[in-house]
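QUALITY CONTROL LOG
STEP: pairwise intake check
CHECKER ROLE: data steward
CRITERIA: each record must contain a sequence immediately followed by its structure tokens, with no blank fields

ENTRY 1 OF 2
RESULT FIELD BELOW
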Amino acid sequence: MGCAMWAHGPWQGRFLPQPLAAGERLRAYASWCDAVEGNTTFYATPPPQTVEAWARQTGPDFRLLVKLPKPITHGRRLAGGDEELRPFLAAMEPLGPRVHALWIQLPGSFGPGDLGALAGFLRRLPAGHRYAVEVRHPAFFTDPRAARALEGVLAGADAEWVPFDTTVLFRGPPDTDAEREAWTRKPRLPRRSPALTDRPIVRYLGRDDTARTVEGWQCWVDTITGWLREGRSPTVFVHTPDNADALPLARRFHDEVRARLPRLAPLPDPLPAEPLTLF
């Protein structure tokens, strides 16, 4: 269970300690959630000491969904990319089992005609990692033939299809500045919920209004509960346009699933947002 980032200004002093050194932010976040999206690696491969710091701040059961660099997925569109891929994989090695999956997020222009490039790329990847693919071309969501073709490519590599559910965001007009910005940047696609592997991944984007976010995720509570009963190990990332309350919302989602499946382990106890005192 996690969020889109582990450091966010509005969390400081509300949910996470303030002040908080940069080298302690992931540790504090990991007291709230046990997974996080690694979006920063999309923009640059971090130096080894940065990745080593991430590993030091988290336990071996913490999980990162690590996004492949933009030059590979958007620049080269999976054609080649070995020059960027090798140092990236080497940089991630200190995380060890914390790498839940390597996340291949593809541009909206990457359509059914590009599946050959995806299949070839997946074949070239080392077998030591799990892989998760996010597509944004409308044909994969509206054309059953395109969807089946993509599923076939992913099944051949035991890779997961990552849905990014934005349907709640676009269900009604935006009410906040963050929602208005999200309307211009986020993909508007149908919801997709089938799992291809035993470790499905869901990215859910709600609204800045908590009630609407919670109402919108009820279908996912049903789906996640079903997957757990089937013996799968799903991971869910909760977003809102401003992400101001994403931390407690992620825990609330987990609590709703746990209310149906009490055997599900609880999340860790969060660190206090304020320093403890003697009085």
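ENTRY 2 OF 2
RESULT FIELD BELOW
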Amino acid sequence: MAVLAFDHAPVGLAVTRNRVIERCNARFCETFGYAEDELPQRSLAVLYPSQEEFLRIGEIGSRRMRETGRYADERIMQRRNGALFWCRVRGQSLTPDDPFARAVWSFADLSESRPVADLTARERQVAALLAEGQTNKEIARVLELSPRTAEAHRARLQAKLGARNTAELVARLTGLPL
């Protein structure tokens, strides 16, 4: 029964070992635009817009998973054809002492409710933190920026997404109706 649930889940599922895909379901492959035999034994890095983002999110995820054994966020990911899309990611470590040694992940495509704007890597980082409810000061601390720089990124996001204020920006980032 567990195999049936894994293979036919309505979201993409992957089992990883040290951030390398061991096994994934058909929805996972479909979400990222790969054939079912192409992703096993490949690094999750191929699914990120850049190596820098793969490493940065890995550092954040490792810290959180060491504390709780779990990680969750919403971020921009990349399909095989290079198209970017918003994705809800949830992870559970199977090896608490070494969180990435073995983990199970779910990936839900949010592109229908949250289109991607043309954002820089830093703007994507700020957008993800804003979507989590972080303040400019908290974003500055996490990204090691000055609060004014974080505010400038938020202001550029507002302009790019046509939001009049932070509440409207967060609504646009999270796909909530305005």
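INTAKE CHECK: passed for both entries
DESCRIPTIVE NOTE, ENTRY 2: The longest helix spans residues 51-68.
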